Amino acid sequence: MRLNTLAPAPGAKKERIRVGRGRGSGLGKTCGKGHKGQKARAGGSVKAGFEGGQMPLQRRLPKVGFNSPSKNLTDEVRLHELSKVAGDVVDLLTLREAGLLSGVVSQVKIIESGAIDRAIVVRGVGVTAGARRAIEAAGGKVE
Questions:
Q1: Does the pLDDT of residue 60 top 90, yes or no?
Q2: Domain residue spans in the chain?
Q3: What CATH topology corresponds to 72-142?
Q4: CA separation for the pair 95, 108 (Å, rounded)
């Protein structure tokens, strides 16, 4: 193979259509744009969504957002915050009594942030893999 023999694959390069070069080309005179009007002129394009002055669809429709119904039902507790829990068992009730959860939270996950220095038993609460290792290393267990 030599540089002077390189060529694109057949059909890969299309020849540019030359408009306005006579009737015989098939695209002479009006160049395939029809007669007059905005779209026949130079720069004659309308922005996306424009409906000729009529109120566009995206402005006619009401704007409705989305509020997740379960947004405030979940929470996370850091590992070092578990020292505020009285007793050796950590569950939703003891976390709420320690002031770590609000009243509406129904799902909790313990994340590894900080350290834990005592053995605890975790029940009915989600635990990340790192937090599970730290709890078990401190002599506790996750049920």
A1: yes
A2: 16-49, 72-142
A3: Ribosomal Protein L15; Chain: K; domain 2 (3.100.10)
A4: 9
Burial 63-94 (b: 16+ CB within 10 A, else e): eeeeeeeeeeeeebbebebbeebeeeebbeeb
Residues 6+ away with beta carbon under 8 Å from 107:
73, 74, 75, 126
When pLDDT is cut at 50, 70 and 90, the band that residue 109 belongs to is very high
Would the pTM of this model clear 0.70, i.e. be above it? no
Cα dist. 130→101, 110, 119, 124, 141 in Å? Answer: 21, 10, 16, 17, 13
Reported as half-sphere exposure (CB side, CA atoms, 13 A), residue 138 has a value of: 23
Q: Is 106 helix (H, G, I), strand (E, B) or coil?
A: coil
CA–CA distance, 109 with 91 (Å, rounded to integer) = 10
**At residue 107, what is the residue type?**
Q
Distance CA 74, CA 96 (A): 13
